[in-house]
Amino acid sequence: MNILIFNLGMDKNDAILSFTEDWVNQIAKHCDQVFVLTLRSGEFRVVPNVHVYDIGHQKGFSKLRLIFNFYYLLFKILWEKKIDGVFSHMNQLFSALAGPVLFIFRIKLITWYAHPSVTISLKIAHFFSKYMVASLDLAYPYKKNKLRVIGQGIDTTLFQKTTDKKEKIILFTGRISRVKKLEVLINAFKINEPVIHDFKLLIVGDPNGREGIKYKNELTDLVNQQGLASKVIFKTAVNRQQLPDIYSSAFMNINQTQTGSGDKVIWEGMACETITLVANQGLIETLGQYKDLCLYEYNNEIQLAEKMKEILLLPEDERLEIGRFLRNQVIELHSLEKLPGKLLKLFN
Question: What is 2-153+337-347's CATH number?
């Protein structure tokens, strides 16, 4: 089988998109040839049966030039290669642009989308796609008639526990933007200060654009107002190869993503056997028997503080057992190793 993949980037130095290299290489293990049409590229390493075509966003081309490059390369690939199916990963715009062409060529299109926004490009992508896929049922916001849930695709060989020693760290990883509601986490940390007076809150991630920088400055002001300057640490985003050590050494991991989306850092932390608190109802299946312990109401700092305290007071052996359970759930439901089989089965 020959597969064409649309994606946003191929760059192992991109803190957000570096994982796409692993996705492509893992899918390629199950295919004869894989062709990748990407918005931008940097440094990457792919297996021999993967071929990458870049439309040049990183070169500063105009939108018109990028659209021309997209269609030129798309027709070149379809004309010269035998393509059995197209998988569009986090790129509904490419699905919308290519949909009519693929319909004429009678090539199945499968589009990954896991975000609360319903856009025109999503509606067009949905119309032309054979299936829409996502990590969670609740992560797909549009019509469910074409939705298939295939998991998040976490590399559990990379994301695994690297140390048995837990530091007194409460962790957040991800982009610093308003949708992450980090003020809720900071306030919950403050509420628990009498219990966790010797703990630190570590926030790992970079601001998202100009608005993100403004938001980070507001968070810094909040930290100072709360008298937490020595206890709340902001750390810039790190290479994903460094993340397992950070997850593994954290006492607990907190994620603010609301229901109706997905966030891979949730499963990365769980794969490292770190107890993770989430506000996303879509994680109920993953949390299994520990859903009441690990699930809190979105934007509810009082309840988050209570859940944090409950975990802090658990015996060590119970915390270890919860961590092992969460890792096993990630392996079973969201591992990268199992993702290609689920995806390619849909083309057949």
Answer: 3.40.50.2000
